[in-house]
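Still learning. Show one?

>
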Amino acid sequence: MAEPILKWAGGKRQLLDELYARFPATYGRYHEPFVGGGAVFFDLEPSAATVNDANPRLVNFYERVRDDPEALIERLESFDDPDADPDPDLPHAEETARGRDVESYYYQQRARFNRRPYEGEFDPLEEAALLLYLNRTCYNGLYRENADGGFNVPVGRYANPDWVQRDRIRRASDALADATVRNGDFDYVLDAAEPGDLVYFDPPYEPMSATASFNEYSAEGFDREDQRRLLDVAGALDEAGVWVVLSNSGVMNEPYAEAGFRVDREGATRAINSDAGNRDEVDEIVATNVPPSERRAAGQRDLAEF
């Protein structure tokens, strides 16, 4: 079984059983418009799929995992310990593009990652390797950008960080072999999904209190209008005979219930939080148009296809 390679906020590994309990027993092609860390996709390993994300660096990473796994592993093996001295043969060995001192090898690679889109010829393999290296050595596995789009997470403290991830890359490459990887808007599924296909939506959202209203809801990079568009897309897929499963903040309970979806509340623990004491259970929903009579049997892991 493949596993996620990257640590990614909002990952759904802890909700897999609850999600699968609402999947149809059989379906055609699988579509995941907000793939993120890919917890569901890699666990399912569907034989025919589309995956999409709005983050171009994440999409490039999955393309390299799919198409060049051994070259990616070799590039990762060339990286040094995050606390080592900067490499004098690489850019930003002494200071960042903004003139700040570079304290260690980690901060040199962070500076390189942040300047790659603006300096020299773009190397998609190096971009992918830097993303995984930083993800596996930064503080708490966060992916966070500042207002200028720069990755700004400090170095983490790990005894033996594994940034190469050989086995996970190879298994993930196999899982992605027949998948279409996209970098665009989630509404592509209106054209890509056919009747009998399954679409799983896991949009960006911030857990909200039980008393918060939809009109108060917003998440960085994915606002109220995006949530409304997503609700409309889910409704259009439902009318077209496409199976839909969606996870979201608890504040979206009422809108999906009013649209005719079956909605249940589930508890989810924050997997990534800067405050370890604040990784508590949050309010989350799972909505679906799959009736109980069409759902998978309990404990079923392999899905038959049409």
About this structure: Residues 12 and 66 are 22 Å apart (CA to CA). DSSP finds ten helices and nine strands in the chain. The chain has two domains: 13-54+184-305, 63-162.
